[in-house]
Design a protein that fits this description.
- The protein is an alpha/beta fold.
- Helices cover about 35% and strands about 20% of the residues.
- The longest helix has 21 residues.
Amino acid sequence: MSATELPSRSNDCTIKDRFGFATGACTIKHRIFSRLGLFSAFLALFMLAACLPDEAQQSPLAQATLTPTPRSTPLPPVPTVIPPGVEDNPIQMVIRAASGTRNLISNAQIESFQDAILDQSGLIVEITLVERYAEALAALCDSRPTSVVVAWLDGVSYEAAQALDCGEAVLQVERNSQTGDPGQIVTNGELQIGSLGALSDATFCRLGYDDYYSWLVPSLILQANGIDPANGLTTVTDYPDADALIEAVVDGECAATGISESAFDDLRGTVRSDLDVLETSAPFPYGVLVYPIALTLGERLRLTDALLALSTDLDGGDVMKPFLSQDNLETVETDDFEALSGFLSRTGLDFAQLGN
């Protein structure tokens, strides 16, 4: 072979040494074969990746924290409601004792009245005596299921209870076949006082600032007729008792005073003829028993029936009389206090505010 002649390439490419022996297989491949092999390798890797599951191709996800299964827990027991009228929840009955009689009522009389109610109704009732109707009203309006208060009220405090929505009238006291008594302003007949306005220049007399018919009711009469009792009267004089008061009016020491209609009718004929009635109010009830909303229906009926039964029983009536001075008890009807409410509304006073 000449120096310019290149050795031929063959597929087996056996290389022999100079003695003619083969030295090994030829590892030199054609350039085209090498590129084709590299491409085939990439293609195989690509196909392998395409065949893997989706989970294997995605990045691993964080595992969710297990939420504990909620377990039900028992609720605390609901406290048992204790009905009124039992030992643990007695009904309180508040009564305003008649003026000057509080110290005359003994504990034995209170216990006798309570026992009589228990025997008739099966309800435990505790009697509380107060000096003013305002105290009875406040206790009534403060009633709640665990401390029920029923109260005996007068006409003015009953009107306040209605304005405050503190309860419902159920029974009222009856005396001499009547359940109430109007108030009157009477004057000395010789003075010929023709109108309430003429009292502004006259002396008005009373038993005291807290007396019902000689001052409270006349004040309401004046107010209902546009006269301020605090500023519309020149002189107001107190007298020690009813006889001295009426005698002062008859003698001309006083121009006018207040008196209940029944007390006026009970005056001696000669005394009554010396007086003129200037104005008369609506009847003011002797006593109204008011139940709060907190008193349940069953207990209402039992207490009402028991008190009515006691009032018609000779012994029961005697047990009740020191507290209510009743001849009887009557059930309240819907229109019993219409005249009173109409009269009090003409005063222009805010009885809800007065009740507070």
